[in-house]
Amino acid sequence: MNFTGIEQITHGVEDLNECIRFYKDWGLTKVSADDNVAVFKTLDGTEVVLCLKDDPALQPAIEDGSTMRHVVWGVKDEADLKAVRELLSAQETYGEVDGCPACIDPNGMSISFRITQRHAVDIESAPLNTWDQPDARTDRASTFYDHAEPVKIGHVVFFVADLAATEAFYVDVLGFVVSDRYPGAGTFLRCATPGGHHSLFLLERDDKKAGLNHVAYTVRDIHEVFGGGLQIDRCGWKTQIGPGRHPVSSAYFWYVESPAGALAEYFTDEDYCTEAWVPREFERSNEAFTEWAIAGGIDGNTRRQNASLKNK
Ligand SMILES: [Fe+2]
Questions:
Q1: For residues 84 and 81, what is the distance between their CA atoms, to the nearest angstrom?
Q2: Ligand 1 centroid to 180 CA: how many Å?
Q3: Cα–Cα distances in Å, from 50 out to 12, 89, 99, 159, 222?
Q4: Residue 134 Cα, ligand 1 centroid: separation in angstroms?
Q5: Domain boundaries defined on the chain
Q6: Ligand 1 mean position to 265 CA, how many Å?
Q7: What sign does the CA torsion over 257, 260, 262, 263 have?
Q8: pLDDT of residue 260
């Protein structure tokens, strides 16, 4: 079965107001906010729900502090939803969340499935004048973004306590497909074929503790990665690393520390995989993580590498 991607994520957070400020600066649209819950959305309607971390309505946390508490994956229609319900029903933790089939994955993360509510987005990416297509953009300057407006959530990444068990659940039970691997250390999974290189990345760290690593927001082109990153710096948020480029997935990235837990990533230009894609294996290393990258980011005002970090 093909899933349609990530529909909704819920974070349990320590400081709701700080998170509301972050996601506005990040470029999401605020749907609603009160003292206990805020909802934002991307351009295609993917939802980010923020709740106070001690809200009793939240699913159990996989780690202390602000972090992800629930992921909703999308399916195309009622028939697919019924099929997922059947796939999940043998799981010990099978249940319902908001009337949708749900369970707890082997890493402790609460997940559920719903018919997609995301919609097509009519926006233009900046054409690139390349050697074999020098006139893709003719008689007009390219695009410069003064902030990002993420189109959707492209992937979520978790530290997992048991990589083999968690991978087996997503592959054998749900039918996700392995795109690439750090053997014994990490697995890049896509929920649809053809589709983007990964919608879920499972990463085992040395202490084998579960946790959130990052949430990746898709932007339309490389210029929006840069424009978004510069703006988020001007808003006072801290870049962990970026801009940069991943050898695995080929994507450009910019990672920022998020008050909702772990990191948020702007990314674009990931590999697109059909059934012809052959999974590869990479040794987990700096070289596999980044072809190149700027640690600490770029100062959005000086337009130069962050001075406080460039000698580190
Ligand atoms: Fe990512």
A1: 5
A2: 14
A3: 6, 28, 20, 21, 28
A4: 30
A5: 5-118
A6: 6
A7: negative
A8: 98
